[in-house]
Design goal:
heterodimer, A: alpha/beta, Glutaredoxin, Ubiquitin-like (UB roll), five-stranded mixed β-sheet, B: alpha+beta, 2 domains, globular, disordered N terminus, binds flavin mononucleotide, binds FE2/S2 (inorganic) cluster
């Protein structure tokens, strides 16, 4: 153990123990809580506590993932029960303070669950439907600690992994542990993380970058932002370990500008590490030095693509680069770089601390560990779950998510974001596993699961995804720039009840051109939603096109903004290109017609 | 109601004065927390400060980054969060992402647009509200989602949206009435969530 860590651990343990000597109230603020009104609840708590003069600690934490129960207030009493109060509006705050904090008796009728012990009249947290099957690794601290509080983090096992790596392991051994653990990239491509690190560690350059991709432009996914919002220190520890393992000098945490709370919390966590000798020169007193900074990007989905991300870090338009050269040889500022998704990185500290075998024993043979899924849409318990691979989609949606809130039959799931597809209800027994899912054409992607009941039109939802794909096309290559516009045009016509003969084959041709001719995954995979919707719901398309659909489609107002240097309709170059004709280009037969897995 | 004064007409536009647009852009660029300063990071910092990117800001970023104004403009025009005209005083965002879509975002949007006198995202004539569509506000679990002056609001409905818009208007009117007694520079009127949260952090 390094001396620095030994000292930090002592202080952290004391401060954690000290917390337990007073009532402790944790309120889930951050993006999820705020959206549910937690700011008002927090304000009420502060006001009432201030007036009554009771001695309590109030902490702002991130979401636990039980989003359906926000605003969530977590009360623990010294030596007593710890109780979660769900859907707690400001008007209920005085009651909790009077009865639970002052009176010492939990308010059973307002409680959601008890934690670490039984309280008569309420379920335990692990028995809540949504907590079934969950194994929390990357989300281990979600809702438990103050997001940027080093002491809290260390008291719950944080930085033990980094300390172990620095004091007991050679860099190569760390890479080997990650390789043996079977950890695969959670950003979409599911590539072996250890293997990727190996590419970088072989490069002798003195300046190398670890890029942590928290862009998360996928609509419907919110797990990356949640990690930043609840526990940024886990990704910082992961980045430092990655830096040590690959001999890198710098880390960059890449976040979209706009939501303040994840950015502020991440910056605060980085400052805390600098102030305590965990970042900067001589990390934890060893010979290894490492710097991390936050890099912000404007609104751009394609900025999440690894080479576009590097352009954005350099301050340019986030347009993908040609590859090769690959990032491990020529990355950001021309230096060797490694890019991982934030979820991937967040597993690293626990893998190093607890060993490769531990991680590998969770999940399935080829998909080790857990998946973090974002449940939203027609679902009783929307929120965030961390479940081992190997569960079925049905377990996730019906057991944990509780199915449709009104008990309507589920029709399909939208998975994998705008480049993913739809999974019809009759395939819900599919096992969560990268390879099983890929083989059947479904994609887990970044973990967004949008549940749709029988009243939803697939055609309508796919048009929404296409509008996104069109607007987000960076415009660098024309198959994608024009293909997405053309496809959306066809869809707009179909939705408006104005389809034409040959639309089906036209869509297929555009799709083939997109796939074969696009530079990056955005264009290559942009046809996926249409493809899978046609495959599973072809009849619904025919009904819509034939004018006898029972699911009417409302008019759609999309954003005016595009990515082509124009901000009003009249200025938009492509708006002028009314693609109102049939392009008769045969699909280009390229050798590399297989889309990149990215 | 007439358009409110924009910052452009409120400050003395001499180059060095720190309350001129160019001066404020310069300060914003210098005060960035990031150690790596780029054209993009500078543009983001200036937009946070001014609410938009006037030509002066493009010039200032170009000057500071030793780039051409064209190069800076090329980057600024790529990202739809940048704007080049002053926004109205309050920013209302509505998510049109897939989760919010199925949960009724279009119904809300198409009810809200006539209420605001708009056809799509844009500025209301009274100078009060800028409506923006967002691809995903990141709180899908609470969809349909909106944000009012950067403060997220979930489980929205058309009625709630109209109510919150009216609240913004009422608060704004109250503040304007107050400041008419004691005139404050127009650019200090907005009570953007960003400022509010900064205040919250300080106490
Ligand atoms: C259009 C496009 C958008 C992407 N967006 C993201 C993103 O938001 N976050 C992310 O982690 N990866 C994203 N990726 C995947 C990255 O290119 C890259 O594969 C990933 O960050 C690698 O990390 P991993 O190995 O840990 O998965 C995107 C890819 C494409 C083609
Ligand atoms: S495929 Fe689309 S997003 Fe990707 S580089 Fe080409 S135009 Fe840009
Ligand atoms: S696409 Fe660039 S010149 Fe035609
Ligand atoms: S889809 Fe609306 S918040 Fe994500």
């Amino acid at each position: 153990m390094t001396e620095v860590f030994e000292r930090l651990l002592d202080v952290a343990t004391d401060s954690w123990a000290d917390l337990k000597t007073r009532p402790w109230i944790r309120v889930s603020t951050g993006m999820m809580g705020t959206a549910a009104g937690a700011r008002d609840t927090l304000q009420a708590l502060r006001d009432h506590v201030g007036l009554s003069g009771i001695q309590v600690t109030i902490s702002e934490v991130g979401t636990t993932g039980l989003c359906y129960a926000e605003p969530l207030v977590d009360v623990s009493m010294p030596g007593g029960a710890r109780v979660l109060y769900g859907n707690l509006g400001p008007e209920r705050v005085p009651e909790i303070l009077d009865r639970h904090i002052k009176g010492g008796a939990p308010v059973v009728e307002l409680a959601l669950a008890s934690v670490d012990g039984d309280v008569p009249g309420m379920p335990r947290r692990e028995d809540l439907p949504m907590m079934q099957h969950q194994v929390r690794i990357a989300l281990r601290n979600a809702g438990e600690i103050e997001p940027a509080n080093l002491h809290h983090y260390i008291a719950r096992g944080g930085f033990a992994g980094l300390d172990k790596a620095l004091s007991e392991m050679q860099p190569d051994e760390v890479v080997q542990v990650i390789r043996d653990s079977g950890l695969r990239g959670r950003g979409g491509a599911a590539f072996s993380t250890g293997t990727k690190w190996g590419f970088l560690s072989g490069n002798p350059s003195p300046i190398k970058y670890i890029l942590c991709n928290c862009e998360e432009g996928d609509p419907g996914a919110f797990n990356d932002k949640t990690i930043l919002d609840t526990d940024p220190l886990t990704l910082i520890e992961g980045c430092i370990i990655a830096g040590y393992a690959t001999g890198s000098s710098n880390g960059i945490v890449f976040i979209r500008h706009g939501n303040d709370s994840p950015i502020d919390r991440t910056r605060a966590a980085i400052s805390a590490c600098y102030a305590n000798g965990i970042l900067g020169q001589r990390v934890m007193g060893t010979d290894f030095s490492f710097d991390i900074e936050v890099s912000l990007v404007g609104e751009s989905y394609v900025a999440g693509e690894e080479t576009a991300l590097m352009e954005a870090v350099e301050g340019k338009r986030s347009m993908p680069r040609f590859r090769p050269p690959f990032p491990a040889a020529y990355g950001v500022w021309g230096k060797p770089s490694n890019i991982n998704n934030i979820k991937t990185i967040s597993y690293v500290p626990e893998i190093v601390r607890r060993g490769a075998t531990w991680f590998n024993s969770i999940g399935t043979e080829k998909s080790a560990g857990t998946a973090i899924a974002c449940l939203s849409g027609d679902i009783r318990y929307p929120g965030l779950v961390e479940i081992p691979f190997g569960l079925t989609m049905r377990q996730v949606v019906e057991d944990l998510g509780g199915g449709d809130p009104d008990g309507k039959p589920i029709k399909f799931l939208q998975t994998g974001g705008p480049l993913g597809g739809v999974l019809p209800a009759d395939q819900l027994d599919m096992v969560l596993d990268y390879d099983v899912m890929a083989a059947s054409g479904a994609m887990f992607g970044s973990g967004g699961l949008i549940v749709c009941n029988e009243t939803r039109s697939v055609v309508d939802l796919v048009r929404n995804l296409l509008a996104f794909d069109q607007m987000e096309s960076c415009g660098k290559c024309f198959p994608c720039r024009l293909g997405t516009s053309h496809l959306l045009d066809v869809f707009d016509r179909i939705c408006a009840g104005d389809s034409r003969d040959g639309d089906m084959s036209l869509m297929a041709r555009i799709g083939a051109n997109l796939r074969a001719g696009s530079l990056c995954g955005h264009g290559q995979l942009g046809y996926n939603p249409v493809d899978s919707a046609l495959k599973h719901f072809g009849d619904e398309f025919l009904a819509q096109m034939g004018g006898y659909s029972t699911l009417p489609i409302a008019p759609f107002v999309g954003p005016l903004t595009t990515r082509r240097g124009a901000h009003t309709e009249s200025e938009t170059p492509t708006a002028a290109v009314k693609l109102d004709f049939v392009v008769n280009i045969e699909p280009v037969a390229l050798k590399s017609a297989a889309p990149e897995a990215d | 109601m007439s358009k409110p004064d924009t910052p452009a007409s409120s400050g003395i536009d001499t180059d060095g004065a720190s309350n001129s647009l160019r001066g404020r852009a310069r300060d914003a660029i210098s005060k960035q927390p990031a150690t790596t300063v780029t054209i993009l990071s500078s543009l983001l910092a200036v937009q946070d400060e001014l609410g938009y990117l006037p030509a002066e800001a493009i010039d200032e970023v170009a000057h500071r980054m030793t780039a051409s104004a064209n190069a800076v403009w090329g980057i600024a025009s790529f990202y739809p969060n940048f704007r080049f005209t002053p926004p109205n005083r309050h920013k209302v965002e509505l998510c049109w992402g897939p989760t919010c879509h199925i949960l009724g975002a279009q119904h809300m949007l198409q009810g809200l647009l006539p209420h605001l006198g708009l056809n799509n995202e844009g500025e209301t004539e009274d100078g009060l509200i800028s409506l923006k569509l967002n691809t995903c506000l990141g709180v899908c679990a609470h969809g349909p989602a909106m944000s009012f002056d950067e403060e997220l609001a979930g489980h929205m409905s058309l009625d709630k949206a109209i109510h919150l818009v009216e609240c913004i208007k009422a608060t704004d009117a109250a503040i304007t009435a107050e400041s008419e007694n004691e005139p404050a520079p127009a650019d200090q009127v907005p009570l953007a969530g960003r400022q509010r949260s900064a205040e919250a952090k300080n106490d």
